[in-house]
Amino acid sequence: MKPATPPAQSPVEDDGAGGASGAGASGPRRSKLVMAVFNVVVIIFLIGAAVVIWGKPRKKTLKTVSVPAEAQAEPGVLTVTLFFAARDAQSLVPERREIATQGGALEENIRSVIAELAIGPSGEAARVLPEGAALRAAFLDGEGNLYLDFGQELRSQHWGGAAGERLTIEALRQTIAANFAAVRSVRVLVGGEPIESIAGHIDAQQPITVGGR
Predict the structure, then answer these.
(1) What is the overall mean pLDDT for the chain?
(2) What is the extent of the structural domain holding 171?
(3) Is 150 contained in some domain?
């Protein structure tokens, strides 16, 4: 009698066992692959975000700059030359005068000088601006053109006459020329408006050339 032979394993069972083993081995590999892809996506996203953030224009912060004390204008005394009418009413005579300044802009110094001119002479010379003819404003543009805006008294209180008007305009021209080299021309206004003349004789519509330039 032959000994009993163990039954051979079924090929189907072997295939089943092998299939289960393969699935178990491929699981970790698939997880690692997913994690690697995820990491790459995150890195790409971070790089893109950094490019967008750093690519945006940044707002500039304005810095406050302190002006050195020596560069700031200070109150003081300004020696100026004013021109008044000679006693013969045919020419002008100079008068040097010291006036107090507040250390302001050029326009403010011009106003101070014209205010002194409106006060009148201290000697035997005659006035060139009527009493009460106050300067309302002075404006110097970037091209050196000066605008002097007087009150209505410049016209209403002026003594008139062609010679008188000429001396008024010439006194303004020479006074500005003697004290303010930056001025190229002067334009007389009254009440903020251009005028044809001060008292009907001398044309005041055109700018007055200063210093013969």
Answers:
(1) 78
(2) 74-209
(3) yes
Domain tally, the chain = 1
* pTM reported for the whole predicted model: 0.64
Q: Is residue 17 part of a domain?
A: no
CB 213 within 8 A of CB 131: no
- pLDDT(201) > 80: yes
| Domain contains 95 | yes
**pLDDT above 70 (res 29):** no
How far apart CA 36 and CA 198 sit, in angstroms, is: 92
Listing DSSP states for the chain in one string gives -PPPPPPPPPHHHHHHHHHHHHHHHHHHHHHHHHHHHHHHHHHHHHHHHHHHHHHSPPPPPPPP-PPPGGGS---EEEEEEEEEE-TTSSSEEEEEEEEEE-S--HHHHHHHHHHHHHH--SSS-B-SS-TT--EEEEEE-TTSEEEEEE-THHHHT----HHHHHHHHHHHHHHHHHH-TT--EEEEEETTEE-S-SSSSS--SSPEESTT-
For a pLDDT cut of 70, what percent of the chain falls above it?
67
Q: Which amino acid is at 102?
A: Q
At 200, list the tokens: 């009907």
Q: Is residue 2 part of a domain?
A: no
Write the pLDDT tens digit of every residue in 140-194.
Answer: 999 999 999 999 999 999 998 999 999 999 999 999 999 999 999 999 999 999 9
Q: What is the mean pLDDT of residues 98-119?
A: 88
| Cα–Cα dist 141/191, whole Å | 19
